TrEMBL record, chain A:
Catalytic activity: 4 Fe(II)-[cytochrome c] + O2 + 8 H(+)(in) = 4 Fe(III)-[cytochrome c] + 2 H2O + 4 H(+)(out)
Chain segments annotated as coiled-coil in the UniProt record: none
Keyword set includes Nucleotide-binding: no
Domain (Cytochrome oxidase subunit I profile): residue spans on this chain: 10-521
Compartments, record wording: Cell membrane
Protein's UniProt name: Cytochrome c oxidase subunit 1
Source organism of the structure: Pontibacillus marinus BH030004 = DSM 16465
Its EC number(s): 7.1.1.9
Keywords: Cell membrane, Copper, Electron transport, Heme, Iron, Membrane, Metal-binding, Respiratory chain, Translocase, Transmembrane, Transmembrane helix, Transport
Pfam families for the chain: COX1
Family according to the record: Belongs to the heme-copper respiratory oxidase family.
Domain of life: Bacteria
GO MF annotation, one: heme binding
TrEMBL record, chain B:
Segments traversing the membrane: 24-43, 49-70, 82-103
Any GO CC annotation of this UniProt entry: plasma membrane
Organism of derivation: Pontibacillus marinus BH030004 = DSM 16465
UniProt keyword list: Cell membrane, Membrane, Transmembrane, Transmembrane helix
Primary subcellular site in the record, as a coarse category: membrane
Subcellular location: Cell membrane
Identification of the protein by name: Cytochrome B6
Keyword Hydrolase: no
Record's bilayer topology term: Multi-pass membrane protein
Xref: InterPro entries: Cyt_c_oxidase_su4_bacillaceae (IPR014257), Cyt_c_oxidase_su4_prok (IPR005171)
Length: 619, 104
């Protein structure tokens, strides 16, 4: 009936379980592991870039290789590392925080993951024959005329993984709107759930722009169309718009959930209710809204004209206001709180000044006239690493420390956690702070060498040394993960004395999450019960049968089909026989969908008696 | 008890009838709109007149479709409506930008 009840499984059974799982907690682990692997690949690429730029006129990698490295580094980090980390955190926390037994569409959840995974694998297979080399922004005509198949892998890999992301976003949207436990009104949702909701909306509206852009580029590159080719009546500026209409919301897709989890962490470890909860919600929604009206700040130097530039400059600066509201609310939450400096809190506290610096440089860049000086220099590189590493990566580390017990039932070693933090934190500032000045001194981004005598030697050396410190921090974190999984002690249900629903059930939770749906009596529901009740959630329903979905291998097959189809499409340019491969892939996908449609899969029930047997009142 | 169910049954019946009427009216007006659109093109009116009128009628038809045939006029559709309108807003903004600030 269910594999989750089996005691000890062989490797094959475990593997099959993960290939077919529709359980949000296991899908979270899948996202985490594959995101982690891609993060290491992207990190390795970054290290190679920094080694090339360690000394002037270096010859460590060739110029062509350098272009591939920067392109794959950016693309991998955004689409294949940061995105799955966000989905890992949303999958583990959101259903538990709203008191649900799973997401709204467990089958689609699995499909979203496998599409992402196969898209990422397709993109990285390009390394064997020549990776994409037109930058992660893939501006036309550089991207449409780039020789070889690198950019084709970019287009099809991102198209497939983008479809997975879109599916995942819609799933969380429906889950949060429809699956909240009784009493969990919108204004009682934890901030992480709120930000996950807004992020899902952003995914729904932003990703289609990327999909359209990638389709147009696919027709240009693979089928001889001319959407971005002025000699055929096309226009390459359209790609820039489509990319950034997606691209700017994307940075908020990444950072908003991180804002949410920092809010939860700060309130837990300060033992205080979040300061200005409703202002935080308002700021989140406002950032999501404004995020759609600022994309052209990436195009100030494209020649939009002074009026368009001014409008977008002012809209961009406006975003700093809700962001500032958030920063102050976090500070006020900590103010006067009983602060516990756990590893999760350490990353959080370090995030605040680091991210704020990135926000400052953002406002500087938003001044359109000044941006003519900053644009495409290392100043921009410094800006977005301050917001993405100082925001998203710090946040992922904090979130992993915080929710590790919920995911794996063990607490990550706190000492090692702090030991990993310091080299990473110091290395981060070493690497990127100096880059502001390198940029202001005129060092352009995406150049494979700089020359001695330009006064850039020392800054670049410092920057590279910092990158090694960050590597050290990451390795210590990995060591921590391994040590904890071997020796770590079993975590209790609520190791942090926390406030939200996910801590009211065992770590890790049973596969059905909540034996009885809890009744929510206020913001921070568990804390309410700790203060006014007996510390346990009151059930909202009598103990009854629980309906569960069956595992399924179909999502894997659908995604595998798209992967094969992508491969065929890329190579049919050279030899039209590859079209048969593409068609075979399409048939696998359509056939799997057909099976899914005609085969009744009604799931199964866990019976009330079995639930009673399994230690009633053990929570 | 029995009285009550028959009462609510009567109510549902009346409501259904009302709904049917709306469906028929909107359906008929959609056909009329289509005829007008064709007529205007065949009748060779000035473009600056024809195009806006056709677009206007298209917008009305979409609204009919959503509200009368896809039941958005019913209760409990606040969120879908919000999402739809935000989507329309984003799409509009995109098209406006493409029309105004992309240089050819
Ligand atoms: C106060 C808020 C922010 C403002 C005012 C701002 C402003 C800007 C501006 C004007 C640029 C374009 C610079 C240029 O290319 O000349 C830029 C680039 C960038 N920003 Fe921000 N930003 C803000 C927050 C963020 C956040 C939160 C993230 C990500 C989490 C982010 C990620 C990026 C990235 C990735 C780029 C570079 C894209 C590229 O060219 O490859 N920004 N920002
Ligand atoms: Cu932006």
């Amino acid at each position: 009936m269910s594999t989750a009840t089996a005691q000890k499984q062989g490797f094959g059974a475990t593997l099959w379980d993960y290939l077919t799982t529709v359980d949000h907690k296991k899908i979270a682990i899948l996202y985490l592991v594959s995101g982690g692997i891609f993060f290491l690949a992207g990190g390795l690429e970054a290290l190679l870039i920094r080694i090339q730029l360690m000394v002037p006129d270096n010859n460590f990698v060739s110029s062509g290789m350098y272009n591939q490295l920067i392109t794959m580094h950016g693309t991998t980090m955004i689409f294949l590392a940061a995105m799955p980390f966000i989905f890992a955190l949303m999958n583990i926390a959101v259903p538990l925080q709203i008191g649900a037994r799973d997401v709204a569409f467990p089958f689609l959840n699995s499909l979203g993951f496998w599409l992402f995974f196969f898209g990422g694998v397709l993109l990285n297979l390009s390394w064997f024959t020549g990776a994409p080399d037109a930058g992660w922004t893939a501006y036309a005509p550089l991207s449409t005329t780039s020789p070889g198949h690198g950019m084709d892998f970019y287009v099809l890999g991102l198209q497939i993984s983008g479809a997975g992301t879109l599916i995942g976003g819609i799933n969380f949207l429906v889950t949060i709107i429809n699956m909240r436990a009784p009493g969990m009104t919108y204004m009682r949702m934890p901030l992480f759930t709120w930000t996950a909701l807004v992020t899902s909306v952003l995914i729904l509206f932003a990703f289609p722009a990327l999909t359209v852009g990638l389709f147009l580029m696919m027709f240009d590159r693979l089928f001889g169309a001319g959407f971005f080719d002025p000699t055929m009546g096309g226009n390459h500026v359209i790609w820039e718009h489509l990319f950034w209409i997606f691209g700017h919301p994307e940075v908020y897709i990444l950072v908003l959930p991180i804002f949410g989890l920092f809010s939860d962490i700060i309130s837990t470890f300060s033992k205080k209710r979040l300061f200005g909860y409703s202002a935080m919600v308002f700021a989140t929604v406002l950032i999501g809204f404004l995020g759609f009206m600022v994309w052209a700040h990436h195009m100030f130097t494209t020649g939009l004209g002074p009026i368009a530039n001014s409008i977008f400059a002012i809209a961009t600066m406006a975003i700093a206001v809700p962001t500032g509201i958030k920063i102050f609310n976090w500070l006020f939450t900590m103010w006067g709180g009983v602060i516990r400096m756990t590893a999760a809190m350490l990353w959080t506290v370090a995030f605040i000044p680091s991210f704020t610096l990135g926000g400052f440089t953002g406002v500087m860049l938003a001044a359109a006239a000044a941006d003519f000086q900053y644009h495409d220099t290392y100043f921009v590189v410094a800006h977005f690493h301050y917001v993405i590493v100082g925001g998203v990566v710090f946040g992922v580390f904090a979130g992993l420390h915080y929710w590790w017990p919920k995911m794996f039932g063990k607490i990550l070693d706190e000492k090692l956690g702090k030991l990993a933090f310091w080299p990473f934190f110091i290395g981060f500032h070493l690497t990127f702070f100096i880059q502001h000045f390198l940029g202001l001194m005129g060092m352009p981004r995406r150049y494979w060498v700089f020359h001695s005598g330009d006064g850039l030697d020392l800054g670049n050396l410092i920057s590279t040394i910092g990158a090694f410190f960050m590597t050290l921090g990451t390795l210590i974190f990995l060591y921590n993960v391994i040590i904890t999984s071997i020796k770590g002690e079993k975590a209790s249900a609520d190791p942090w004395d926390a406030r939200t629903l996910e801590w009211s059930i065992p770590s890790p939770p049973p596969f059905y999450n909540f034996k009885q749906t809890p009744l929510v009596r206020g913001l921070d529901p568990l804390w309410v019960e700790k203060r006014q009740g007996n510390g346990k959630m009151t059930p909202a329903e009598p103990l009854g049968d629980i309906h569960m979905p069956n595992n399924s291998f179909i999502p894997f097959m659908i995604s595998l089909g798209s992967f094969v189809m992508g491969y065929g499409l890329i190579y049919q340019v050279d030899d039209s026989r590859w079209l048969f491969v593409a068609i075979a892939g399409l048939l696998i996908t359509l056939g799997s969908m057909f099976v899914r449609s005609v085969k009744d899969d009604l799931g199964y029930h866990i019976h009330k008696e079995d639930l009673e047997e399994k230690g009633a009142g053990s929570e | 008890m029995a009285n009550k169910t028959s009462e609510s049954f009567e109510f549902a019946k009346k409501k259904n009838k009302e709904e049917m009427k709306h469906h028929l009216i909107t359906f008929a007006s959609m056909i009329v709109f289509t005829l007008i659109a064709f007529g205007m093109v065949i009748g060779d009116f000035h473009r600056l007149f024809t195009i806006p009128v056709i677009i206007l009628m298209a917008v009305v038809q979409v609204a009919f479709q959503l509200y009368y045939f896809m039941h958005m006029s019913h209760k409990g559709h606040g969120l879908p409506a919000l999402m739809l309108y935000s989507g329309v807003g984003v799409a509009f903004l995109t098209i406006l930008a493409m029309q105004t600030i992309v240089w050819w």
